Amino acid sequence: MRENFEKELKNLHLEIETMGNMVIKVIDNSVIALTKKNTDLAKKIIAEDIDINNMEKKIESHCLNIILRENPVASDLRFISSVLKIITDLERIADQGADIAEISLYLSDEDFITPIVKIPQMANIAQDMVRKSLEAFINGDLSLATEVIEMDNRVDELFHCLKNHLIELIIENPKNGTQALDILMIGKYLERIGDHAENISEWVIYFLTGKVPNI
Amino acid sequence: MSKIKIKDFNLFYDNFQGLKNINMNIEENKITAFIGPSGCGKSSLLKSINRMNDLVDSCVTNGNIYFDDKDIMKTDVTQLRKEIGMVFQNPNPFPMSIYNNIAYGPRTHGIKSKEELDKIVESSLRKAALYDEVKDSIHKSALKLSGGQQQRLCIARALAIEPEVLLLDEPTSALDPISTLKIEELLQSLKDDYTIVIVTHNMQQALRISDNTGFFLNGELIEFNETDKLFTFPENEKTENYITGRFG
Q1: Domains defined along chain A, listed by start
Q2: Closest-CA residue in chain B for A209?
Q3: What is the ipTM for the molecules in this complex?
Q4: Cβ pair B244:A1 closer than 8 A
Q5: Backbone φ and ψ of B5, nearest 5°
Q6: Fold of B2-243
Q7: Contact B233/A71, CB-based, under 8 Å?
Q8: Nearest residue, CB atoms, B246 vs list A1, A71, A209
Q9: Among A9, A143, A147, A173, which residue is least crowded by beta carbons within 10 Å?
Protein backbone atom coordinates (compact mmCIF):
# COMPACT_ATOMS: atom_id res chain seq x y z
CA MET A 1 0.00 0.00 0.00
CA ARG A 2 1.18 3.50 -0.77
CA GLU A 3 0.25 5.07 2.55
CA ASN A 4 1.61 8.56 1.84
CA PHE A 5 -0.11 8.61 -1.50
CA GLU A 6 -3.40 7.57 0.09
CA LYS A 7 -2.97 10.39 2.60
CA GLU A 8 -2.33 12.88 -0.22
CA LEU A 9 -5.50 11.76 -2.00
CA LYS A 10 -7.53 12.14 1.21
CA ASN A 11 -6.11 15.66 1.64
CA LEU A 12 -7.19 16.49 -1.90
CA HIS A 13 -10.70 15.27 -1.06
CA LEU A 14 -10.77 17.60 1.96
CA GLU A 15 -9.36 20.54 0.02
CA ILE A 16 -11.89 20.26 -2.76
CA GLU A 17 -14.69 19.96 -0.20
CA THR A 18 -13.45 23.14 1.51
CA MET A 19 -13.21 25.02 -1.78
CA GLY A 20 -16.68 23.76 -2.72
CA ASN A 21 -18.17 25.05 0.54
CA MET A 22 -16.52 28.45 0.03
CA VAL A 23 -17.99 28.69 -3.47
CA ILE A 24 -21.50 27.62 -2.39
CA LYS A 25 -21.41 30.35 0.27
CA VAL A 26 -20.48 32.92 -2.41
CA ILE A 27 -23.55 32.01 -4.49
CA ASP A 28 -25.76 32.26 -1.42
CA ASN A 29 -24.32 35.55 -0.22
CA SER A 30 -24.31 37.18 -3.65
CA VAL A 31 -28.07 36.74 -3.91
CA ILE A 32 -28.59 37.91 -0.30
CA ALA A 33 -26.47 40.98 -1.06
CA LEU A 34 -28.70 41.68 -4.07
CA THR A 35 -32.10 41.10 -2.53
CA LYS A 36 -31.32 42.72 0.84
CA LYS A 37 -29.29 45.50 -0.79
CA ASN A 38 -26.49 44.60 1.60
CA THR A 39 -23.49 46.50 0.25
CA ASP A 40 -21.14 45.40 3.02
CA LEU A 41 -21.80 41.78 2.15
CA ALA A 42 -21.32 42.53 -1.58
CA LYS A 43 -17.97 44.20 -0.89
CA LYS A 44 -16.92 41.28 1.31
CA ILE A 45 -17.68 38.79 -1.49
CA ILE A 46 -15.63 40.83 -3.96
CA ALA A 47 -12.71 41.17 -1.53
CA GLU A 48 -12.72 37.49 -0.62
CA ASP A 49 -12.68 36.26 -4.22
CA ILE A 50 -8.90 36.22 -3.97
CA ASP A 51 -9.10 33.53 -1.24
CA ILE A 52 -10.86 31.23 -3.69
CA ASN A 53 -8.32 32.02 -6.42
CA ASN A 54 -5.56 31.14 -3.96
CA MET A 55 -7.33 27.95 -2.98
CA GLU A 56 -7.49 26.96 -6.66
CA LYS A 57 -3.75 27.59 -7.02
CA LYS A 58 -3.02 25.61 -3.87
CA ILE A 59 -5.03 22.57 -5.01
CA GLU A 60 -3.58 22.83 -8.52
CA SER A 61 -0.03 22.80 -7.20
CA HIS A 62 -0.91 19.90 -4.91
CA CYS A 63 -2.21 17.92 -7.93
CA LEU A 64 0.85 18.72 -10.05
CA ASN A 65 3.05 17.66 -7.17
CA ILE A 66 1.27 14.31 -6.91
CA ILE A 67 1.52 13.78 -10.69
CA LEU A 68 5.23 14.55 -10.52
CA ARG A 69 6.02 12.34 -7.56
CA GLU A 70 3.54 9.50 -7.80
CA ASN A 71 2.95 8.99 -11.53
CA PRO A 72 -0.72 8.20 -10.90
CA VAL A 73 -2.53 5.84 -13.26
CA ALA A 74 -6.04 4.39 -13.66
CA SER A 75 -8.59 5.69 -11.10
CA ASP A 76 -5.91 7.79 -9.36
CA LEU A 77 -5.06 9.55 -12.63
CA ARG A 78 -8.74 10.08 -13.41
CA PHE A 79 -9.31 11.44 -9.90
CA ILE A 80 -6.46 13.93 -10.10
CA SER A 81 -7.27 15.09 -13.62
CA SER A 82 -10.91 15.54 -12.55
CA VAL A 83 -9.80 17.62 -9.55
CA LEU A 84 -7.74 19.82 -11.87
CA LYS A 85 -10.76 20.43 -14.10
CA ILE A 86 -13.28 20.81 -11.26
CA ILE A 87 -11.30 23.52 -9.43
CA THR A 88 -11.31 25.60 -12.63
CA ASP A 89 -15.11 25.38 -12.72
CA LEU A 90 -15.34 26.21 -9.01
CA GLU A 91 -13.11 29.23 -9.45
CA ARG A 92 -15.24 30.46 -12.36
CA ILE A 93 -18.40 30.02 -10.27
CA ALA A 94 -16.87 32.19 -7.54
CA ASP A 95 -15.97 34.83 -10.16
CA GLN A 96 -19.57 34.87 -11.29
CA GLY A 97 -20.72 35.24 -7.68
CA ALA A 98 -18.38 38.23 -7.34
CA ASP A 99 -19.78 39.66 -10.59
CA ILE A 100 -23.31 39.39 -9.17
CA ALA A 101 -22.10 41.14 -6.00
CA GLU A 102 -20.65 43.94 -8.12
CA ILE A 103 -23.93 44.50 -9.96
CA SER A 104 -25.79 44.41 -6.65
CA LEU A 105 -23.68 47.41 -5.58
CA TYR A 106 -24.98 49.47 -8.56
CA LEU A 107 -28.52 48.42 -7.79
CA SER A 108 -28.34 49.02 -4.04
CA ASP A 109 -29.71 52.56 -4.20
CA GLU A 110 -32.39 51.86 -6.80
CA ASP A 111 -35.91 50.51 -6.44
CA PHE A 112 -36.26 47.23 -8.26
CA ILE A 113 -38.38 47.42 -11.42
CA THR A 114 -39.85 44.04 -10.54
CA PRO A 115 -39.92 41.78 -7.46
CA ILE A 116 -36.75 39.66 -7.44
CA VAL A 117 -38.27 36.17 -7.52
CA LYS A 118 -36.68 34.14 -10.31
CA ILE A 119 -33.11 35.09 -9.30
CA PRO A 120 -33.26 33.46 -5.82
CA GLN A 121 -34.97 30.42 -7.39
CA MET A 122 -32.18 30.08 -9.94
CA ALA A 123 -29.56 30.61 -7.22
CA ASN A 124 -31.10 27.88 -5.06
CA ILE A 125 -31.00 25.34 -7.85
CA ALA A 126 -27.52 26.37 -9.04
CA GLN A 127 -26.17 26.15 -5.50
CA ASP A 128 -27.84 22.76 -5.03
CA MET A 129 -26.25 21.59 -8.29
CA VAL A 130 -22.77 22.60 -7.10
CA ARG A 131 -23.33 20.90 -3.74
CA LYS A 132 -24.64 17.70 -5.30
CA SER A 133 -21.95 17.53 -7.99
CA LEU A 134 -19.25 17.73 -5.31
CA GLU A 135 -21.08 15.21 -3.15
CA ALA A 136 -21.21 12.90 -6.20
CA PHE A 137 -17.46 13.37 -6.65
CA ILE A 138 -16.54 12.74 -3.03
CA ASN A 139 -18.84 9.69 -2.71
CA GLY A 140 -18.34 8.36 -6.23
CA ASP A 141 -22.10 8.59 -6.85
CA LEU A 142 -22.81 8.23 -10.58
CA SER A 143 -26.60 8.63 -10.33
CA LEU A 144 -26.28 11.86 -8.34
CA ALA A 145 -23.90 13.25 -10.99
CA THR A 146 -26.45 12.39 -13.70
CA GLU A 147 -29.22 14.03 -11.64
CA VAL A 148 -27.22 17.29 -11.52
CA ILE A 149 -26.94 17.34 -15.31
CA GLU A 150 -30.73 17.08 -15.57
CA MET A 151 -31.19 19.88 -13.01
CA ASP A 152 -29.49 22.32 -15.37
CA ASN A 153 -32.59 22.30 -17.61
CA ARG A 154 -34.59 23.90 -14.78
CA VAL A 155 -32.04 26.73 -14.41
CA ASP A 156 -32.15 27.31 -18.17
CA GLU A 157 -35.97 27.43 -18.11
CA LEU A 158 -35.97 29.96 -15.29
CA PHE A 159 -33.46 32.09 -17.17
CA HIS A 160 -35.68 32.14 -20.26
CA CYS A 161 -38.73 33.09 -18.16
CA LEU A 162 -36.69 35.88 -16.56
CA LYS A 163 -35.51 37.10 -19.95
CA ASN A 164 -39.05 37.19 -21.38
CA HIS A 165 -40.33 38.99 -18.30
CA LEU A 166 -37.56 41.61 -18.60
CA ILE A 167 -38.33 42.14 -22.30
CA GLU A 168 -41.94 42.83 -21.36
CA LEU A 169 -40.81 45.36 -18.76
CA ILE A 170 -38.64 47.16 -21.32
CA ILE A 171 -41.50 47.23 -23.83
CA GLU A 172 -43.76 48.62 -21.10
CA ASN A 173 -41.32 51.36 -20.21
CA PRO A 174 -38.01 51.81 -22.02
CA LYS A 175 -36.60 53.51 -18.90
CA ASN A 176 -36.59 50.05 -17.30
CA GLY A 177 -33.92 49.05 -19.83
CA THR A 178 -30.79 49.77 -17.81
CA GLN A 179 -31.84 47.87 -14.71
CA ALA A 180 -33.43 45.12 -16.79
CA LEU A 181 -30.06 44.52 -18.43
CA ASP A 182 -28.36 44.37 -15.02
CA ILE A 183 -30.89 41.82 -13.79
CA LEU A 184 -30.53 39.89 -17.03
CA MET A 185 -26.76 39.78 -16.47
CA ILE A 186 -27.30 38.38 -12.97
CA GLY A 187 -29.61 35.74 -14.42
CA LYS A 188 -27.00 34.91 -17.04
CA TYR A 189 -24.30 34.55 -14.37
CA LEU A 190 -26.51 32.12 -12.47
CA GLU A 191 -27.28 30.23 -15.66
CA ARG A 192 -23.50 29.95 -16.25
CA ILE A 193 -23.04 28.72 -12.67
CA GLY A 194 -25.48 25.93 -13.52
CA ASP A 195 -23.37 25.11 -16.60
CA HIS A 196 -20.21 24.95 -14.48
CA ALA A 197 -21.94 22.62 -12.00
CA GLU A 198 -22.94 20.49 -14.98
CA ASN A 199 -19.27 20.45 -16.09
CA ILE A 200 -18.27 19.29 -12.62
CA SER A 201 -20.74 16.42 -12.88
CA GLU A 202 -19.37 15.52 -16.31
CA TRP A 203 -15.91 15.22 -14.72
CA VAL A 204 -17.38 13.08 -11.95
CA ILE A 205 -18.76 10.79 -14.66
CA TYR A 206 -15.32 10.70 -16.30
CA PHE A 207 -13.72 9.84 -12.95
CA LEU A 208 -16.18 7.00 -12.40
CA THR A 209 -16.55 5.60 -15.90
CA GLY A 210 -13.54 6.79 -17.91
CA LYS A 211 -15.94 8.38 -20.42
CA VAL A 212 -14.46 11.71 -21.51
CA PRO A 213 -17.07 14.48 -21.29
CA ASN A 214 -18.08 16.44 -24.34
CA ILE A 215 -17.67 19.88 -22.74
CA MET B 1 -2.84 -8.16 -37.92
CA SER B 2 -1.64 -10.80 -35.46
CA LYS B 3 1.99 -11.84 -35.80
CA ILE B 4 1.92 -14.24 -32.87
CA LYS B 5 -1.13 -16.12 -31.63
CA ILE B 6 -1.05 -17.83 -28.26
CA LYS B 7 -3.80 -20.41 -27.73
CA ASP B 8 -4.68 -22.25 -24.52
CA PHE B 9 -1.03 -22.19 -23.51
CA ASN B 10 0.08 -23.79 -20.23
CA LEU B 11 3.59 -24.05 -18.83
CA PHE B 12 4.86 -26.16 -15.94
CA TYR B 13 8.16 -26.27 -14.07
CA ASP B 14 7.90 -29.81 -12.64
CA ASN B 15 4.70 -29.68 -10.58
CA PHE B 16 4.47 -25.90 -10.50
CA GLN B 17 2.21 -24.35 -13.11
CA GLY B 18 3.88 -21.15 -14.28
CA LEU B 19 1.35 -20.19 -16.96
CA LYS B 20 -2.36 -20.99 -16.96
CA ASN B 21 -4.37 -21.16 -20.15
CA ILE B 22 -2.94 -18.09 -21.84
CA ASN B 23 -4.73 -16.77 -24.92
CA MET B 24 -3.51 -13.66 -26.66
CA ASN B 25 -2.75 -12.24 -30.08
CA ILE B 26 0.36 -10.12 -30.51
CA GLU B 27 -0.08 -7.56 -33.24
CA GLU B 28 2.40 -7.01 -36.03
CA ASN B 29 4.48 -3.78 -35.96
CA LYS B 30 3.30 -2.93 -32.50
CA ILE B 31 5.07 -2.88 -29.16
CA THR B 32 3.44 -5.24 -26.69
CA ALA B 33 4.43 -4.96 -23.03
CA PHE B 34 4.08 -7.71 -20.43
CA ILE B 35 3.80 -6.40 -16.87
CA GLY B 36 3.17 -8.02 -13.51
CA PRO B 37 4.90 -8.80 -10.22
CA SER B 38 7.95 -11.09 -10.03
CA GLY B 39 7.04 -14.72 -10.63
CA CYS B 40 3.81 -13.89 -12.48
CA GLY B 41 4.88 -15.75 -15.61
CA LYS B 42 5.58 -12.85 -17.96
CA SER B 43 9.21 -13.82 -18.68
CA SER B 44 8.24 -17.49 -19.00
CA LEU B 45 5.77 -16.57 -21.71
CA LEU B 46 8.31 -14.36 -23.47
CA LYS B 47 10.84 -17.19 -23.47
CA SER B 48 8.22 -19.59 -24.77
CA ILE B 49 7.72 -17.49 -27.90
CA ASN B 50 11.15 -18.38 -29.30
CA ARG B 51 11.36 -21.67 -27.41
CA MET B 52 14.10 -20.59 -25.03
CA ASN B 53 12.29 -22.72 -22.47
CA ASP B 54 13.31 -25.81 -24.47
CA LEU B 55 16.64 -25.36 -22.68
CA VAL B 56 15.01 -25.74 -19.23
CA ASP B 57 14.80 -29.45 -18.39
CA SER B 58 11.95 -29.16 -15.90
CA CYS B 59 9.81 -27.05 -18.26
CA VAL B 60 6.84 -28.68 -19.98
CA THR B 61 4.25 -26.84 -22.05
CA ASN B 62 0.97 -27.57 -23.75
CA GLY B 63 -1.29 -25.50 -25.95
CA ASN B 64 -0.03 -23.66 -29.01
CA ILE B 65 1.94 -20.64 -30.07
CA TYR B 66 1.67 -19.67 -33.71
CA PHE B 67 4.17 -17.42 -35.45
CA ASP B 68 2.71 -16.23 -38.76
CA ASP B 69 0.17 -19.05 -38.38
CA LYS B 70 2.93 -21.67 -38.11
CA ASP B 71 3.01 -23.73 -34.93
CA ILE B 72 6.37 -22.87 -33.31
CA MET B 73 6.74 -26.42 -31.96
CA LYS B 74 6.64 -27.67 -35.53
CA THR B 75 9.21 -25.13 -36.73
CA ASP B 76 12.97 -25.71 -36.81
CA VAL B 77 14.19 -24.06 -33.61
CA THR B 78 17.27 -22.46 -35.22
CA GLN B 79 15.11 -20.95 -37.93
CA LEU B 80 12.57 -19.81 -35.30
CA ARG B 81 15.24 -18.02 -33.27
CA LYS B 82 16.54 -16.37 -36.43
CA GLU B 83 13.08 -14.97 -37.05
CA ILE B 84 12.40 -14.16 -33.39
CA GLY B 85 15.41 -12.44 -31.82
CA MET B 86 15.92 -11.87 -28.14
CA VAL B 87 17.61 -9.30 -25.93
CA PHE B 88 18.15 -9.97 -22.22
CA GLN B 89 18.11 -7.93 -19.04
CA ASN B 90 21.89 -7.59 -18.66
CA PRO B 91 23.82 -6.57 -21.76
CA ASN B 92 25.82 -9.63 -22.77
CA PRO B 93 28.19 -8.74 -25.61
CA PHE B 94 30.59 -11.49 -26.64
CA PRO B 95 34.21 -10.83 -25.57
CA MET B 96 35.20 -9.79 -29.06
CA SER B 97 35.15 -6.67 -31.21
CA ILE B 98 32.00 -4.67 -31.90
CA TYR B 99 32.22 -5.78 -35.52
CA ASN B 100 32.52 -9.46 -34.67
CA ASN B 101 29.68 -9.30 -32.17
CA ILE B 102 27.34 -8.29 -34.95
CA ALA B 103 28.88 -10.42 -37.70
CA TYR B 104 28.73 -13.52 -35.48
CA GLY B 105 25.06 -14.31 -36.18
CA PRO B 106 25.14 -13.76 -39.96
CA ARG B 107 28.36 -15.84 -40.16
CA THR B 108 26.71 -18.76 -38.38
CA HIS B 109 23.90 -18.46 -40.93
CA GLY B 110 26.42 -18.87 -43.74
CA ILE B 111 27.30 -15.32 -44.77
CA LYS B 112 31.06 -15.22 -45.40
CA SER B 113 31.57 -12.29 -47.79
CA LYS B 114 33.37 -9.43 -46.05
CA GLU B 115 31.58 -6.86 -48.16
CA GLU B 116 28.20 -8.27 -47.20
CA LEU B 117 29.15 -8.54 -43.53
CA ASP B 118 30.41 -4.92 -43.56
CA LYS B 119 27.02 -3.83 -44.86
CA ILE B 120 25.13 -5.85 -42.26
CA VAL B 121 27.31 -4.52 -39.42
CA GLU B 122 26.85 -0.92 -40.48
CA SER B 123 23.12 -1.15 -41.10
CA SER B 124 22.52 -3.03 -37.82
CA LEU B 125 24.50 -0.43 -35.87
CA ARG B 126 22.57 2.35 -37.61
CA LYS B 127 19.21 0.70 -36.85
CA ALA B 128 20.27 0.39 -33.21
CA ALA B 129 21.23 4.11 -33.17
CA LEU B 130 24.78 3.21 -32.22
CA TYR B 131 26.72 3.69 -35.45
CA ASP B 132 27.71 7.33 -34.95
CA GLU B 133 29.03 6.59 -31.47
CA VAL B 134 31.19 3.59 -32.42
CA LYS B 135 32.08 4.02 -36.09
CA ASP B 136 35.71 4.83 -35.27
CA SER B 137 36.16 1.98 -32.82
CA ILE B 138 34.30 -0.76 -34.58
CA HIS B 139 37.21 -3.21 -34.28
CA LYS B 140 37.75 -2.50 -30.60
CA SER B 141 36.42 -4.73 -27.83
CA ALA B 142 32.68 -4.47 -27.24
CA LEU B 143 33.38 -4.81 -23.53
CA LYS B 144 34.78 -1.27 -23.53
CA LEU B 145 31.36 0.20 -24.37
CA SER B 146 29.14 1.69 -21.66
CA GLY B 147 26.21 -0.40 -20.33
CA GLY B 148 23.71 1.49 -22.50
CA GLN B 149 25.89 1.13 -25.58
CA GLN B 150 26.39 -2.57 -24.86
CA GLN B 151 22.62 -3.05 -24.70
CA ARG B 152 22.16 -1.25 -28.02
CA LEU B 153 24.92 -3.46 -29.41
CA CYS B 154 22.94 -6.49 -28.26
CA ILE B 155 19.90 -5.08 -30.08
CA ALA B 156 22.07 -4.48 -33.19
CA ARG B 157 23.33 -8.07 -32.87
CA ALA B 158 19.76 -9.34 -32.72
CA LEU B 159 18.81 -7.21 -35.76
CA ALA B 160 21.80 -8.46 -37.81
CA ILE B 161 20.13 -11.79 -38.46
CA GLU B 162 17.06 -9.98 -39.79
CA PRO B 163 14.41 -11.17 -37.39
CA GLU B 164 10.76 -10.23 -37.72
CA VAL B 165 10.07 -10.20 -34.00
CA LEU B 166 12.21 -8.82 -31.20
CA LEU B 167 11.70 -10.13 -27.67
CA LEU B 168 13.17 -8.04 -24.87
CA ASP B 169 13.34 -9.22 -21.28
CA GLU B 170 13.64 -6.13 -19.04
CA PRO B 171 16.19 -4.60 -21.42
CA THR B 172 16.71 -1.38 -19.47
CA SER B 173 16.56 -2.51 -15.86
CA ALA B 174 20.36 -2.40 -15.57
CA LEU B 175 20.71 0.95 -17.33
CA ASP B 176 20.84 4.60 -16.28
CA PRO B 177 17.95 6.95 -17.27
CA ILE B 178 19.68 8.42 -20.34
CA SER B 179 20.55 4.98 -21.74
CA THR B 180 17.02 3.83 -20.91
CA LEU B 181 15.60 6.75 -22.87
CA LYS B 182 17.80 5.91 -25.86
CA ILE B 183 16.66 2.30 -25.85
CA GLU B 184 13.01 3.36 -25.54
CA GLU B 185 13.34 5.76 -28.47
CA LEU B 186 15.14 3.08 -30.44
CA LEU B 187 12.34 0.57 -29.84
CA GLN B 188 9.74 3.08 -30.97
CA SER B 189 11.67 3.72 -34.18
CA LEU B 190 12.07 -0.03 -34.79
CA LYS B 191 8.40 -0.93 -34.56
CA ASP B 192 7.73 0.12 -38.16
CA ASP B 193 9.86 -2.82 -39.26
CA TYR B 194 9.58 -5.27 -36.36
CA THR B 195 7.06 -6.68 -33.96
CA ILE B 196 8.32 -6.03 -30.46
CA VAL B 197 7.44 -7.74 -27.19
CA ILE B 198 8.95 -6.34 -24.01
CA VAL B 199 8.82 -7.58 -20.44
CA THR B 200 9.21 -4.68 -18.06
CA HIS B 201 8.92 -4.00 -14.35
CA ASN B 202 8.75 -0.32 -15.11
CA MET B 203 5.10 0.56 -15.66
CA GLN B 204 5.95 4.05 -16.83
CA GLN B 205 8.09 2.44 -19.51
CA ALA B 206 5.19 0.25 -20.64
CA LEU B 207 3.04 3.38 -20.73
CA ARG B 208 5.62 5.40 -22.67
CA ILE B 209 6.43 2.96 -25.42
CA SER B 210 3.91 0.16 -25.78
CA ASP B 211 0.74 -0.01 -27.85
CA ASN B 212 -0.75 -2.97 -25.99
CA THR B 213 -0.13 -4.25 -22.48
CA GLY B 214 -0.76 -7.60 -20.86
CA PHE B 215 -0.99 -7.80 -17.08
CA PHE B 216 -0.03 -11.17 -15.58
CA LEU B 217 -0.63 -12.42 -12.07
CA ASN B 218 0.10 -15.89 -10.65
CA GLY B 219 0.52 -17.36 -14.12
CA GLU B 220 -2.71 -15.92 -15.47
CA LEU B 221 -3.19 -13.23 -18.08
CA ILE B 222 -5.53 -10.99 -16.11
CA GLU B 223 -6.00 -8.30 -18.71
CA PHE B 224 -4.74 -7.62 -22.21
CA ASN B 225 -5.70 -4.27 -23.59
CA GLU B 226 -4.57 -1.15 -25.41
CA THR B 227 -1.95 0.45 -23.17
CA ASP B 228 -3.76 3.80 -22.88
CA LYS B 229 -6.95 2.05 -21.89
CA LEU B 230 -5.29 -0.32 -19.44
CA PHE B 231 -3.59 2.53 -17.61
CA THR B 232 -6.55 4.94 -17.57
CA PHE B 233 -9.53 2.63 -17.15
CA PRO B 234 -8.50 -0.99 -16.56
CA GLU B 235 -11.33 -3.49 -16.95
CA ASN B 236 -10.17 -5.80 -14.18
CA GLU B 237 -9.98 -4.77 -10.53
CA LYS B 238 -6.76 -6.77 -10.07
CA THR B 239 -5.12 -4.71 -12.82
CA GLU B 240 -6.34 -1.50 -11.17
CA ASN B 241 -4.98 -2.60 -7.79
CA TYR B 242 -1.60 -3.59 -9.23
CA ILE B 243 -0.95 -0.54 -11.37
CA THR B 244 -2.11 1.90 -8.69
CA GLY B 245 0.15 0.21 -6.13
CA ARG B 246 -2.72 -1.06 -3.97
CA PHE B 247 -1.74 -4.66 -4.40
CA GLY B 248 0.68 -6.74 -2.35
Answers
A1: 3-209 (1.20.58.220)
A2: B233
A3: 0.77
A4: no
A5: -120, 125
A6: Rossmann fold (3.40.50)
A7: no
A8: A1
A9: A143
